[in-house]
Design brief:
The chain has about 220 residues and is an all-alpha fold. Helices cover about 70% and strands about 0% of the residues. It contains 11 helices and no strands. It has helices spanning about 10-25, 30-40, 40-50, 50-70, 80-95, 100, 105-110, 110-140, 145-170, 180-195, 200-210. Helix 1 (about 10-25) crosses helix 2, helix 4 (about 50-70) packs antiparallel against helix 5 and helix 7 packs across helix 8 (about 110-140). The longest helix has 27 residues, at about 110-140. The protein starts with 8 loop residues before the first helix and ends in a 9-residue tail after the last helix.
Amino acid sequence: MVKKAPRRTAERIIETSLALFNRFGEPNVSTNLISTELRISPGNLYYHFPAKDELVNALFDRYLTQLNPLLNAAADVHDVEDAWFFIHSLFEQLWDHRFLYRDLNDLISRNRRLETEVKDLLARQQRAFAQLIAGLHHQGALQLDGAQREALATHMVVLLTWWLSYEYVRNPRHALEEDSAAQALMGGAQHVLRLLSPHLIVGARAHLQSLLAPYSTAPTD
């Protein structure tokens, strides 16, 4: 039987740091805790990542690598089912790196690279939502003028960015735990999708409501 090659130490550090950051919050996880969890020396960890900010930046790069193809696909959204899938996929990516959103204000206040790159990410998300909305508009499923479409895209980005913070404040002991994933993801995706609902034509609105109905405890529009 062929043995699997051991994972590289840097990869193990990245994966363990992500799990700890997601569970406890990045400010609450020290490099000593990470090295203890991995059963490696602090010196071994510092060899790969001399500062915790470098770990955070590596995780942010990983998040962008996973997110970029999805944002690039926004122009291919042409109906409410496409929009449903796109927004759920965004929240799944967000959940996998949820510490970035839970601790966002703290991170950008002390990490100059993130301060710049998160602004760029927000702008790219804004463009992606604007493309999604434009696609629905061009297919006749949604009726808004240009200024209204831009405002709607902004509202969707704001809700996407701060949804997990809202969930965490409501239930700080459990909201960001793995067993809460389905509720957090579905709740956020539903609320972003419901921003579209008032502007959809009757048939498209009914279709969206049918997609949301199995997962929602809130009344439909």
